[in-house]
Amino acid sequence: MDGYVTDHIEILQDHSALFQALAFFEEDVERRCKMHKRRVDMLEPICNDLNSQYYLLIRRQLMFELAETYNEMMDLKLTLANRQADSQSLDSHTIKKFNHLCSASAKYFQMFLDSLCSPEGKYPEHLEEEVLRPALVARFRVARLHGKLISSSPPVQLDNLNKSLENYKYVVQYCDAHPEAAAAAETELELSREMVGPPPSENQSAESEDGC
Predict the structure, then answer these.
(1) DSSP assignments along 6-27, one per residue
(2) How many degrees, rounded to 5, is the angle at CA 77 between CA 75 and CA 82?
(3) pLDDT digit string (tens) for 158-208?
(4) How far is it, in rounded angstroms, from Cα 64 to Cα 76?
(5) What SS3 class is residue 151?
(6) What is the pLDDT of residues 16-71, one digit of tens each?
(7) Nearest alpha-carbon partner for 143 in 113, 186, 120
(8) How many CA atoms lie within 13 A of 79 on its CB side?
(9) Torsion angle of alpha carbons 166, 167, 172, 173, nearest 10°?
(10) 195 Cα distance to chain centroid
(11) Strand locations in 63-130, DSSP E?
């Protein structure tokens, strides 16, 4: 039975890769979004049905692909929203759809990160080489996604920004504690440093220099 399940999933992943390739060459943004939606429709049911105890590695692959697919759809919706914003304000339906895609992407990235935890639910202090880059990228993407969620409620918006900053900080702090990890996610680390800002000591030093 295991062989049939694995073969079936590989076929679905091949189909997903085909739609991804087709979307790359599609100029119409709406059609590209629909192609990525087909990928979600293929992969999401099997991902949620798989038993992590027996298919952990495959499930991680699916979680990450779903997270990136929702993220791509979110970016496409953002492109459409920006076009709409040039001529009119965003309507509630557009905002709701955008937030749904943001949240879905963040959910699957977080599921991937949670799958790295020990049976006791503890996140690893040291990331193994095979999951190092995916884990750092997932943290960076979760930070970015929380920062993009749209809310009219100041407390909710503040909570989203705090979650965003927390994940940016993780990328920076992990790479500072494990310098060899920096090469695995150079772009994400650089952008995370920009979002977090310099350490307090550097800020204080800059302020004292300005005071002179």
Answers:
(1) HHHHHHHHHHHHHHHHHHHH--
(2) 95
(3) 999 999 999 999 999 999 999 999 999 999 999 999 999 876 555 444 444
(4) 18
(5) coil
(6) 999 999 999 999 999 999 999 999 999 999 999 998 888 999 999 999 999 999 99
(7) 113
(8) 12
(9) 60
(10) 16
(11) none
Structure tokens at 120: 């006791």
Domain ranges of the chain: 1-119, 130-197
Cα 202 versus chain centre, distance: 30
Amino acid, res. 29: V
Rounded Cα gap, residues 101 and 108, in angstroms: 11
Radius of gyration of the chain from its Cα atoms, rounded to whole angstroms: 20
111, amino acid identity: M
Distances (CA, A) of 187 to 105, 136, 137, 162, 169: 20, 11, 10, 22, 15
User: What distance lies between CA 106 and its chain's CA centroid?
Assistant: 5
Question: Is the Cβ–Cβ distance between 129 and 104 less than 8 Å?
Answer: no
Distances (CA, A) of 5 to 2, 46, 52: 5, 10, 13
Both structure tokens of 198: 């310099």
Look up residue 48 and give its amino acid.
N
The tokens describing 41, both together, are 């429709």
Q: What does the alpha-carbon distance between residue 169 and residue 173 come to, in Å, rounded to a whole number?
A: 6
